[in-house]
Each structure stands twice: as C-alpha cells, then as structure tokens.
C-alpha cells in the first residue's frame, strides 16, 4: 500500500498522488497521439493480455481490447462461461496458469477477494476491471474527463447521487489521494462502506460528505454523477430499490439546483427514466460519451504504467 511501485492496479489509493497524476498525464499524451491517427507507437508489441469477465460488459471489454490492440498488443476475452474462475478451477490456479501465457491479467469479478487472490498468485500485473467493491479504471477515466472538461480535478466539487456502491468507493479512494470535495447523496441504508469512508477522511486530503439530501448536496457542484440503482448481481432487488430511491433521480430540477456550471456524468450503462432522466443525459452539459471514450485512454496509461513502459 501507498507505494508507487505496485505490480497491480487494484485500488487508486495504492498509489501516491504523483503516480496518479503521471498516469493521467500519460493518458492525455497517448490519447492525443491516437486521435492524431498515429499508429506507429506500439509499446505492447509482442504482448498479450488475458481479460477475465465474470460479469457482462461493453465499455470495459471493448476499451481494454481496442486500446491494447491499438498499441500493438493482443487481448484475449474470457467470458463468464469460459474459465468459470473459482468454480471450474481455483482462482490461484487460474492466476498462475494465465501468468505463464500473458503479460497482463485484467479481471471483472463479483467478490473483491477474487481480484486480491488473482493478484496474489499471478506473477504478472493484475488490473481491476470492476468488483462488487470498486471500479478504479472507471474513476481514472472520470478524473481524466474532469481535467479535460472542468479544467481540473483538484479543488472541484463532485456530487454523486444514488447507491453507495463500487463507483462511490473508487471516488472515495481517489479522494484519499487527490484533494477535492466529494459528496455522496444516497438513501438511508445505502451509504458506502464505512471503513472506506473513514479511510478517505483519515487521509486528510479531501472534504468528504455523506448525506441523504440530494437537493442540498448538489449545490455548487462541478459534476453531478449518477450510476444505476441496482448494480450487476443486484438486479433482483431492482423493484425494491426503485421504491427506496425515489427522490434520488437526477432530473432537470436537480441539475438546476446544481447550477449552470455543473456537468452531468454517468459511468454507464444508464437506465433512462430511473436514476437519470433522458433529458439530463442528452443535455449539452452531459459529458457521458467523452467520459466513456476516456476509459480507453485512461486504461492505456494504466497498462503502460503496470508494464513499466
Ligand atoms: N462503465 C462500465 O464499466 O461499463 P461496462 O459494464 O459496459 O464495462
Ligand atoms: N455499479 C455498477 C457499475 C457498472 C459499470 C455495477 O456494478 O453494475
């Protein structure tokens, strides 16, 4: 923890501020290169990456696979039925076998312990592509998007409205490293993990507020951020959550309270008419698509970093 020389990319706060800012700078550099049409920068030439998905994905799968390919590498998609990690084969065996074929393992899993086990037994870098606990690649992409659109991340106010989930935990862990004001407005009983909130507060870097009042929370926000109310693995709770989360929809009125400068962000996929209205997601200040694009650029920089390139 807290070192710049981690083998893996599992939690944002495993890295110091300088390292996180370096990765974000690198993301912008390589993004510019790729957007210019340049295709001769091939740092991943001759390298392969195994991508384990225990859950569905569009952005994570396509952005990792495309990004790794554009920089010269070859990525292998292993879907929920392919290796059935922990079921067909123990995680520690998967980790050691894949390490013998691949230069990187990227994984999206249910239990966070699975990614910790993978990283423990893998001899190559493991990148966290979302667990029930966190989603660090998403929040790195979000940080990059804020730097591009708001102009900076430091000193801004980010207000997340909805479920205190994996996305929130990664925002909190980013706030433990980079100073900004993070507010999570969620229904009672759906607050983020208390230990993670404490970790972010104890880091003494950022202002952290957890509240049950979205209207008050969004005032003066630079970014209002939403995610689904029922995450992958919770879809059977969707109807119940729909009831409990009334008043937490990001709609035009809430955006109005946030003020003119507020951007709208969402990690996607979005359920329009549930956690966010169609109007908010389609409004000019919604930056959800540049945000989605930045998954690829942020992750390219993360992969360069873990490979020491
Ligand atoms: N935001 C995100 O991780 O999207 P996918 O689930 O489509 O990968
Ligand atoms: N909280 C959501 C994020 C999806 C990218 C989930 O875990 O399903």
UniProtKB/TrEMBL annotation:
Catalytic reaction annotation: carbamoyl phosphate + L-ornithine = L-citrulline + phosphate + H(+)
Domain (Aspartate/ornithine carbamoyltransferase carbamoyl-P binding) ranges: 7-148
Highest taxon above the source species: Eukaryota
Domain Aspartate/ornithine carbamoyltransferase Asp/Orn-binding residues, every copy: 154-305
Enzyme nomenclature, EC number: 2.1.3.3
Keywords: Transferase
EC top class named in words: transferase
Family: Belongs to the aspartate/ornithine carbamoyltransferase superfamily. OTCase family.
Protein's UniProt name: ornithine carbamoyltransferase
Residues of the full protein shown: 71 to 379 of 379
